[in-house]
């Protein structure tokens, strides 16, 4: 066939092409070796810093040059992922002993000089020998010049350790070794800083999780960390009080998460702009004394605690005049939200959740007047977005169809000119919730979108295999839809969009034909 080349022609052409490519490769290799040898060592060090840790360690055996670069590697990040332990590898029962031996080999072949970042994940087992091993590893890497130090201790099955199982050697941060540390992140250890510790001079970020540290030790550390900008305390079980001195002029972010013994937070730092506090709802009786002072810089607050709605209107309106974003998760409220004279003059985003993780306890809101949340709208003249996560259960005989109101109109004199987006999750057919929604519609001329979610606010079939919607929600859904059709739809202005999020009628768990309502 004419379109087939002769076999001899093909082989001769292939050989010729192969020879030309070999010559090109040889010449290119010579040029490459010449150009590589001319590269300065600092550029090579920068290039090698992008190699994964295990690859950089292997490259050290190629030549003395690579070995010298490896022994001065600046970023050391040890975890099962960076060391190449995939999920399939775990299924082959690669033990933590092998991981520990690899880390030990790598660090003992590192000079310890030039380290800027050390992130060390340790997976046990925990005993005197492994404690000594951790001490030796830290002594190798924590040297003058280090800037970021992270120690993460895991318990069995690669879960984060929830208790102190190692005593961090604080003397390691003395004698100038810790002078340059900017970020310190400890998880699952005991940390007892004493006089002489030198990591406070340059420290800008401090994160302690499941760390045993006492209140006076934390106070000593904070009083000497004048450059601190970010402070995070999570599940620290020995802290009773947190007192932040006014000397921390640069501190802008404070986060306290589920410290079970905590009784007092007192901050005199003048420039905190973001404050996050989360309290475990398992102990609703524990009360927190919160003193944030008057902070003109405070822009964002997240508080998860009981009676937080009353606290916000009673305290925050006067002490945080420049607040722009406020999120509150309240486990229960003893009284309905009060009406106050002070205002959030700059508040733009307001998120309120009235719930408990223990759904059987949602009756704590049985006597709460949810319409009293109007006080927040009245106190926020610049509000643009309002999100409400309502209680899941309603009082008996509280349906708007069982006790229809005489009127659902606007309260005279109230107008929310800047409010544009409103979302109510767990919307039910309760009289007060429908009344609140109608009041917002009548008082908000600039409204652009109203979203009423009659589900539990969880994932749907489009995201997971099934909808996570409770039986009670399915039982209430037809009534909630009827309330929207009867009282709310006619009040939605033509310039606004109404979105109704319903339980998925195609889900096998749904006992009703919601599409055929």
UniProtKB/TrEMBL annotation:
Instruction: Tell me which residues make up the F-box domain.
Output: 33-81
Report the Pfam families cross-referenced here: F-box, LRR_At1g61320_AtMIF1
Q: Which domain of life is it from?
A: Eukaryota
Q: Which Gene3D superfamilies match?
A: 1.20.1280.50, Ribonuclease Inhibitor (3.80.10.10)
From the Swiss-Prot or TrEMBL record, give the protein name.
Answer: F-box domain-containing protein
Protein source organism? Triticum aestivum
């Amino acid at each position: 066939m004419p379109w087939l080349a002769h076999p001899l022609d093909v082989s001769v052409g292939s050989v010729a092409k192969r020879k030309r490519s070999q010559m090109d490769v040889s010449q290119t290799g010579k040029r490459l070796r010449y150009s590589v040898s001319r590269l300065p060592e600092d550029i090579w060090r920068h290039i090698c810093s992008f190699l994964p840790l295990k690859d950089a360690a292997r490259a050290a055996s190629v030549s003395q040059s690579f070995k010298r670069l490896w022994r001065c590697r600046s970023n050391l990040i040890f975890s099962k992922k960076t060391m190449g332990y995939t999920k399939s590898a775990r299924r082959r029962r690669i033990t933590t002993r092998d991981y520990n031996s690899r880390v030990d080999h790598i660090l003992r072949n590192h000079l310890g000089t030039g380290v800027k970042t050390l992130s060390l994940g340790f997976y046990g087992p925990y005993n005197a020998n492994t404690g000594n091993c951790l001490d030796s590893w830290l002594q190798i890497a924590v040297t003058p010049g280090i800037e970021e130090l992270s120690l993460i201790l895991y318990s069995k099955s690669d879960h984060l350790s929830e208790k102190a199982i190692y005593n961090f050697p604080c003397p390691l941060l003395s004698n100038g070794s810790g002078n340059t540390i900017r970020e310190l992140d400890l998880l699952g250890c005991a940390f007892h800083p004493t006089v002489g510790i030198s990591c406070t001079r340059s420290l800008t970020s401090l994160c302690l999780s499941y760390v045993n540290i006492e209140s006076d030790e934390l106070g000593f550390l904070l009083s000497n960390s004048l450059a601190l900008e970010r402070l995070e305390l999570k599940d620290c079980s020995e802290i009773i009080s947190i007192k932040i001195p006014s000397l921390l002029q640069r501190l802008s972010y404070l986060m306290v998460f589920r410290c079970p013994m905590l009784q007092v937070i007192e901050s005199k730092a003048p420039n905190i702009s973001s404050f996050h506090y989360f309290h475990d709802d398992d102990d609703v009786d524990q009360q927190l004394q919160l003193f944030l002072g008057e902070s003109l810089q405070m822009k964002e607050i997240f508080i998860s605690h009981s009676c937080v709605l009353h606290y916000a209107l009673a305290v925050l309106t006067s002490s945080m005049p420049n607040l722009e974003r406020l999120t509150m998760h309240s486990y229960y409220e003893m009284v309905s939200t009060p009406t106050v004279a002070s205002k959030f003059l700059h508040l733009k985003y307001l998120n309120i959740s009235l719930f408990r993780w223990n759904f059987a306890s949602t009756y704590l809101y049985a006597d709460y007047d949810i319409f009293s949340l109007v006080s927040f709208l009245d106190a926020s003249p610049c509000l643009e977005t309002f999100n409400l996560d309502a209680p899941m259960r309603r009082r008996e005989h509280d349906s708007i169809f069982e006790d229809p109101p005489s009127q659902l109109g606007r309260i005279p004199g109230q107008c929310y000119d800047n409010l544009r987006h409103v979302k109510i999750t767990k919307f039910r057919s309760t009289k007060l919730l429908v009344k609140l929604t109608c009041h917002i519609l009548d008082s908000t001329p600039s409204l652009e979108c109203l979203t009423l979610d009659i589900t539990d606010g969880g994932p749907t079939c489009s995201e997971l295999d099934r909808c996570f919607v409770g039986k009670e929600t399915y039982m209430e859904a037809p009534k909630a839809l009827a309330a929207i059709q009867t009282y709310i739809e006619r009040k939605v202005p033509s310039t606004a969009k109404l979105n109704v999020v319903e339980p998925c009628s195609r889900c096998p768990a749904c006992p009703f034909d919601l599409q055929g309502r």
